[in-house]
Amino acid sequence: MSQPLTLSSAVVQEAEDDSSPKPSLFDYHSIDQKLLQNIVYDSLVWSTLNCLLVGDKSVQRSGTVPGVGLVHLPLSLLPGPFPESHWKQACELAPIFNELVDRVSLDGQFLQESLSRTKKADEFTSRLLDIHAKMLQINKKEDIRMGIVRSDYMIDEKTKSLLQIEMNTISTSFALIGCLMTGLHRSLLSQYGKFLGLDSNRVPANNAVDQSAEALAKAWSEFNNPRAAILVVVQVEERNMDGQAISIVYFRAGYTPKDYPSESVSYMNSEWRARLMMEQSSAIKCPTISYHLVGTKKVQQELAKPGVLERTPFIRESGKAWDHGDFDETVEGLGSGVISYSSLWSLEDSDIVKKAIESPELFVMKPQREGGGNNIYGDDLRKTLLKLQEAGSEEDAAYILMQRIFPATYPAILVRDGNWNTGHVIAEAGIFGTYLRNKDKIIINNESGYMVRTKVSTSYEGGVLPGFGVVDTVYLT
Amino acid sequence: MSQPLTLSSAVVQEAEDDSSPKPSLFDYHSIDQKLLQNIVYDSLVWSTLNCLLVGDKSVQRSGTVPGVGLVHLPLSLLPGPFPESHWKQACELAPIFNELVDRVSLDGQFLQESLSRTKKADEFTSRLLDIHAKMLQINKKEDIRMGIVRSDYMIDEKTKSLLQIEMNTISTSFALIGCLMTGLHRSLLSQYGKFLGLDSNRVPANNAVDQSAEALAKAWSEFNNPRAAILVVVQVEERNMDGQAISIVYFRAGYTPKDYPSESVSYMNSEWRARLMMEQSSAIKCPTISYHLVGTKKVQQELAKPGVLERTPFIRESGKAWDHGDFDETVEGLGSGVISYSSLWSLEDSDIVKKAIESPELFVMKPQREGGGNNIYGDDLRKTLLKLQEAGSEEDAAYILMQRIFPATYPAILVRDGNWNTGHVIAEAGIFGTYLRNKDKIIINNESGYMVRTKVSTSYEGGVLPGFGVVDTVYLT
């Protein structure tokens, strides 16, 4: 008679032995090193199979030729802890912020006034405002409006409160990476969670990619021209402009002066002229020039001023029914600081400027445009403020001041270039929202997913983290 | 009023202009170079997104650390032409060959006799036969038998006939790569087929991966122990052998002497002892030792002898009903050369040996074990035959002689390391079959998918192609 064939290993026995010691939550020191190596190995295999890959900078052609010099994305091996109540709060706010962006975008005068001083100091914002002004002049109406936005949050360690860092309304990235990371962490915890005392279901589901695609598809349907294409504006020269109808212009680029390089040659052929043409057209813009302007830090700083959120028409539009019955109350809550943009100030506010010169460690100074990495901290912040005061020009309007947040840190295992290291990191969690309306009909307004970026805390300088290099997800606690 | 936004490009216009010249089938010289570059670019992007990737040998750690040093698989940009009638024939033969493998595997005496001379000349085959003999001795019955097999074919240019090169019964690889390539070519033709005069539906569907997984899953069900695992034997030392029940042993390794390295140290701990233990166990083996032996070239050469296929019990088993009613007739057809293993001969056949010494260019000499790359051609073949004749030993039993096939060539665009080149290639198409039975009940017996390997014909030496480097699919003509 044949004997049954059997197999065991340390891992299998550990799984069946419930009395074996479990590491306490996120205490990677107590994880068996052999087990840890298996998890790292599997994370690398998963990343390869699921295209969680980037071009390896050390390989010469990796940036220009696809399919060569690929390496897994730098990643955090396990999800970072995040209080469930704060997570719920952030998710519930997504549709509120979607709606807020839309309402603010309709108030052309507010946008022009908020950015009037910035216009003088910043050529790029000035160009955007010119296009916006032209649309106001011709009374351009956008019946179909769609937003793919992302609000970024940190948890302040001292107050344990959820603070919004910023809201992104153009070229909101990391949706795909966020979804892939969720897939990786859920997969790892499904297999190894029992040894780590972690449950894969505590990593929230993530639909950011599917929901973004659905929003584009539904917007295309609303446009109601089966022959119309979707134009994706990317950071490579592409200027073919007649023949094929366009239903949606999706801006994956256009948020930085670098994306408008040819103006010096000829305005007639410039990217600014193309942007104006797109804005004038009947195509759906994701985002419109107005949505784009709402995403400037200056406008967000204005919105954080007492009383601004409460002004007509952001929260009270008489005689109109809104899908969110509690929207007014919620926004009033935002304004009164229950949850808010972490405190933001204009450099016109001389009291705050004085305070920042005295205690620069409590502030971050940011250019009001999109794209992080240009923040000013510490002694540089003090010197820059003094220089701006001395010059007495309008240049200060290109910046805002922001309360510096000191987020909680957590231990993490960081995997980069096939190697792993441990360290304490801070994280910024971004919640995606998608929005689509046609006139009074709201077709989509939801929270769609998330992404988390971490950075080793020792090199952290505060505010929006420059050069985030490692992605993560959250584990609800 | 807003104007519609429109876009065109040379590509879009070409699509709508039906009068534009289309390149004739597979004549890549007539393909617009800009279009070709776009197709190559998209093939590289698709490969990255869908994990059609391998480790780049030029990156040091790529072979040992997953997720680093990845590069797209060398690939043929477009499918190669293949006559539809031959393709159908090859696909229809898959379940016939599945069944044939199973029936031959049941004739222990035939396997031992066919390989009796080889046993003396080849230590590896001798080991396999020892295990097989032990199973015959204890009258070991395998009620549940499963096969994942692959038959490889070429089309002979002169006769335009489909010729089977060999049949693989252990560790049949390239199922995943075959499916991915089908996905790539169908995707490229969906997008660019109209410019090339090619229809993506002419690239046959490919389910090799799903069907293999399904066969494993169904075999696991038949084993009927919900706690039993599937053991995959791979080419790394793994020897943990008590505790967890095993339902299926899948051999991804074990087909070459290199996979049994430790015998010289101690037989008690050797891989051969593990193989024997697996074979003795009640676990389902994919393949059994008998299936493995059926896959040897010597047995296939014996099967190609006139009258052998017709012997009991391969085609006539009195009083039994078979799922394939026309099986007997088909196998008789195989035997009479309508389609057959391309002519195979033992080195005992002195007439053929004489002929091969006189005209070595018409023959290929092959070791009868698995794993290509060791074939002997031309003057080397003549010298080896003369040496063997002189020695007069049993060493000639380790080889078979095979009619050298001269397959048709076709023009191809070969993409490697992000660059592309053109050239004429020859191709070998492999048709996968999966098979599962439990006693008299056939649960699965199908053709499941395919893979195509090509090689630039200028370096082609005939027979099984050494060092296939570029994968392809077929385009039915």
Features:
477 residues; alpha+beta; seven-stranded antiparallel β-sheet
What does this structure look like?
Chains A, B: Pathway: Sulfur metabolism; glutathione biosynthesis; glutathione from L-cysteine and L-glutamate: step 2/2. Chains A, B: It comes from Psophocarpus tetragonolobus. Chains A, B: One of its GO terms (molecular function) is magnesium ion binding. Chains A, B: Its EC number is 6.3.2.3. The structure is a homodimer of 477-residue chains. Chain A has 477 residues and is α+β, with helices and mostly antiparallel strands. Chain A has one domain. Helices cover 35% and strands 23% of the residues of chain A. In chain A, helix 13 packs across helix 14. Chain A starts with 5 loop residues before the first strand and ends with a strand. About 10% of the residues of chain A have low confidence. At the A-B interface, strand 1, helix 2, strand 3, strand 9 and helix 9 of A face strand 1, helix 2, strand 3, strand 9 and helix 9 of B. Strand 1 of chain A pairs antiparallel with strand 9 of chain B.
| Major interchain interface with per-chain residue totals | A-B, 50 and 50 residues
Oligomerization status of the protein chains: homodimer
Outline the low-pLDDT stretches of chain A. 8-24, 237-241, 316-328, 335-339, 459-467
Structural class of chain A: alpha+beta
Question: What's the total count of β strands of chain A?
Answer: 18
Count of DSSP helices of chain A? Answer: 14
The N- and C-terminal alpha carbons of chain A lie at a distance of: 53 Å
Taking the sheet with the most strands of chain A, its summary is: 7 strands, antiparallel
Helix proportion of chain A: 25-40%
Sheet-strand content of chain A, in percent, reads 15-25%
Radius of gyration of chain A: 24 Å
Number of domains of chain A: 1
Basic shape of chain A: globular
Mean pLDDT of chain A: 81
